[in-house]
Design brief:
Layout (H helix, E strand, L loop, with lengths): L16 H13 L4 E3 L3 E8 L2 E8 L7 H11 L7 E6 L7 E5 L7 H10 L5 E6 L9 H5 L5 H24 L1 H8 L3
Parallel strand pairs: 4-6
Antiparallel strand pairs: 1-2, 2-3, 5-6
């Protein structure tokens, strides 16, 4: 599950890192997203030898929980197998952190997902976007596009995050953390 905001005006925003990773995973699975009744775009396919359902909610970030729960219920995915990819202010740009559970750390998308699921023990791939410069409001920062300097490496970082998702599926959380927390 990649988190982001729908529509072209948000496509390059830091808050859409989850959608960017989901798009790369969809390419790797050799499929296209299709509209689903759960207010999401969905692709069923295979990654890392596993059957997967990739999804991007068509709601705004703050309302991601409803579609996530609806898809989880529809596909009967146990919460411990749910992977949510999202932007993370407290991780430096270019770094990834993988974990299970925890708080939402002020991330409205995660807050919505946790509230809707009634459970916080899902897997997370945290795509580092860094802290806003100076006194810039965090909400304004994540709704801005990546900077020119960041965009030079963005495709590589998104690809690396997609690799981390596949490693998580193939090897499990501990092994994936050992590989991807170094960066």
């Amino acid at each position: 599950m990649g988190l982001g905001n729908p529509g072209p005006s948000y496509a390059g925003n830091r808050h859409n890192a989850g959608f960017m990773v989901a798009d790369v995973l969809a390419e790797r699975a050799g499929g296209r997203f299709k509209s689903h009744k759960a207010r999401s775009d969905v692709l069923e396919g295979r990654l890392a030898g596993e059957r997967v359902v990739l999804a991007k909610p068509r709601t705004y970030m703050n309302e991601s929980g409803g579609p996530v729960k609806a898809l989880r219920d529809f596909y009967k995915v146990p919460v411990e197998r749910l992977v949510v990819v999202h932007d993370e202010l407290d991780v430096p740009y270019g770094a990834l952190r993988l974990k299970r559970g925890g708080g939402d750390n002020g991330h409205n998308g995660l807050r919505s997902v946790t509230r809707s699921l009634g459970d916080k023990e899902y897997l997370r791939v945290r795509f580092g976007v860094g802290r806003p410069p100076g006194r810039m409001d965090a909400a304004a920062f994540v709704l801005k596009d990546f900077s020119a300097a960041e965009r030079k490496e963005l495709a590589l970082e998104v690809d690396r995050a997609a690799d981390a998702v596949e490693a998580l599926l193939r090897e499990g959380l501990g092994a994936a953390q050992n590989t991807y927390h170094a960066g």
